[in-house]
Amino acid sequence: FKILRKEQLAPGIKRMVVLVPLVAKKAKVGQFVIFRADEYGERFPLTLVDWDGEKGTITVIVQEVGVSTRKLGMLEVGDSVSDVFGPLGNPSKMRKYGNAVVIGGGVGTSLMYPQVSALKKAGNHVVSILGARTAELLLLEKELAELSDELYITTDDGSKGIKGFTSDVLKNLLNEGRHFDFVFAVGPV
Question: How far lies 136's CA from each of 84, 107, 141, 154, 166, in Å?
Fold first, then answer.
């Protein structure tokens, strides 16, 4: 399973495009895969951020937090991942709800992106609320801005967007009288 593209999104967080044709052909929104960097590594789950069934590629975001995820992060373009198993999990049911809001931050953004994309394709008005501890840890901001009808940015330290949490923005929107027919939230309650 050859790595075709790799980029650092933030310190210790990388996006990889990997050639996995069978997974790419069957992938659906809300599913995940199991990776193993090499034959000695642990298996760990990664969200399917994007996929292209025709090209046979999947896109994942990995945060290097342990030995196995660091091993994966050390692989370069042209290297191969030992094992990729999936797609796993129940796909999300996407349809036209009307007004939808998708909330998340940090590496949870990898869950946000496919949801926003699918909701937009289904004809919804999509509001995205993206957060992180600091501006340098914001992930997929450009991609979400392109897909979303409205994008709100929050950072815990106020280094970009609104100082505070994503839930604060949702509360403010609701207090202003906004109505949402569908809410998808990633992160702590």
Answer: 30, 13, 11, 12, 16
Residues, the chain: 189
The pLDDT tens digits of the residues spanning 114-168 come to 999 999 999 999 999 999 999 999 999 999 999 999 999 999 999 999 999 999 9
**pTM check: above 0.85:** yes
In angstroms, what CA-CA distances link 8 with 61, 81, 156? 10, 18, 22
Q: In the chain, what is the greatest distance between 2 CA atoms, to the nearest angstrom?
A: 54
Q: Are 46 and 60 in contact (CB under 8 A)?
A: yes
DSSP one-letter string for 4-57: EEEEEEETTEEEEEEE-HHHHHH--TT-EEEEESSTTSPPEEEE--EEETTTTE
| Tokens found for residue 160 | 């970009």
> Residue 130: enclosing H or E segment and its boundaries?
strand 125-132
**Of the candidates 17, 8, 28, 29, which has an alpha carbon nearest to the alpha carbon of residue 84?**
17
pLDDT digits (tens, 9 = 90+) for 56-93: 999 999 999 999 999 999 999 999 999 999 999 999 98
Collapsing DSSP states into helix, strand and coil, what is residue 137?
Answer: helix
> What are the two backbone dihedrals, phi and then psi, of residue 73, each rounded to the nearest 5 degrees?
-65, -25
Give 8's contacts (C-beta < 8 A, 6+ positions apart): 14
